[in-house]
Design brief:
The chain has 10 helices and no strands. Helix 4 (105-130) packs antiparallel against helix 6. The chain has helices spanning 2-15, 18-47, 62-93, 105-130, 133-138, 159-176, 180-197, 216-225, 240-244, 249-260. Helices cover 65% and strands 0% of the residues. It has one domain (2-205). By secondary structure, the chain is mainly α. It is an enzyme of class 4 (lyase).
Length: 265
């Protein structure tokens, strides 16, 4: 497996420059992971499959889904891609590399875990700030246009929010100067996580069922259903920041109340 992976990496570094891999390669990886992981929730909504696991009974119209997709493509091409191109010199300066050998797995995994923890801390405070009155009205309300989220709405946001919350995603790699392989793995896992959190489905096999402190779709769906001043659940991946600062209280109260009434949360 390692030799196969290194052979594939050798092909990439032989046929493409570091700039091409770090910018356009990263963009292609992101788009592929994002849309492949996000589109299934659209088909689930339209078909009604696994409806017993859907958190909200309301479904989005095809028109609303297409509006989301069109805006996402525009945001990604005209905001995300230019940012990747413009930030390349900074990442090179901080130590980003793509040459062989690939980093050992203990290094890769330790860096990815660090990125998740750091991103969650930064995201919590940035997200909480976006729920102040002015920033919510002028910036974050775009993301909350979909009170019933589906996978692709995870990156449906105002360009200013993309820059603001995206800072937490790139901060860890910028500090550690990782191998490009590690950066791609981190980006892919982060995309899959946020798509799952916005999927609108709480499956028995969801990571939140077996990973301690993992938020998941049920935890984040509450954030989209209630008023911005009462939503809480500001974390991106884990739940400990909301627990520490008491911003998950309304969620647990609502869950206990609906459980007593015999309703599905």
């Amino acid at each position: 497996m390692a030799s196969l992976l290194e052979s594939g990496w050798q092909y990439l570094t032989t046929n493409f420059s570091d700039f091409q891999l770090a910018t356009f390669g990263t963009f292609i990886i992101h788009e592929s992971v994002f849309f492949l992981s996000g589109i299934p929730s659209i088909f689930l909504e339209r078909s009604g499959l696994f409806s017993e696991y859907k958190i909200q009974k309301k479904v989005n119209t095809p028109a609303a889904q297409w509006r989301c997709i069109v805006k996402l493509v525009l945001y990604h091409v005209f905001v995300n891609l230019p940012i990747m191109v413009l930030s390349y010199p900074a990442f090179r300066y901080m130590g980003l590399k793509s040459s062989l050998p690939l980093p050992p797995w203990p290094v890769v995994l330790s860096q990815v875990i660090f990125y998740f923890i750091l991103e969650d801390f930064v995201f919590y405070w940035g997200h909480r700030m976006l729920h102040t009155k002015w920033l919510y009205q002028h910036v974050h309300s775009v993301h909350h246009e979909y009170a019933t989220p589906f996978g692709l709405t995870s990156e449906y946001a105002h360009p200013a929010e993309i820059l603001m919350l995206g800072f937490g995603t790139v901060l860890g790699p910028a500090l550690t100067g990782p191998h490009l392989f590690t950066l791609w793995l981190w980006m892919s896992l982060r995309v899959i996580e946020t798509v799952e959190a916005h999927s609108g489905y709480d499956f028995p096999w969801s990571p939140s069922k077996f990973l301690p402190l993992y938020g998941g779709a049920e935890f984040h769906d509450f954030h989209h259903r209630v008023l911005y001043t009462q939503s809480g659940n500001y974390s991106s991946t884990f739940t400990y920041m909301d627990w520490l600062f008491g911003t998950d209280r309304d969620y647990w109260k609502q869950k206990a109340l609906e459980g007593k009434n015999g309703k599905d949360f």
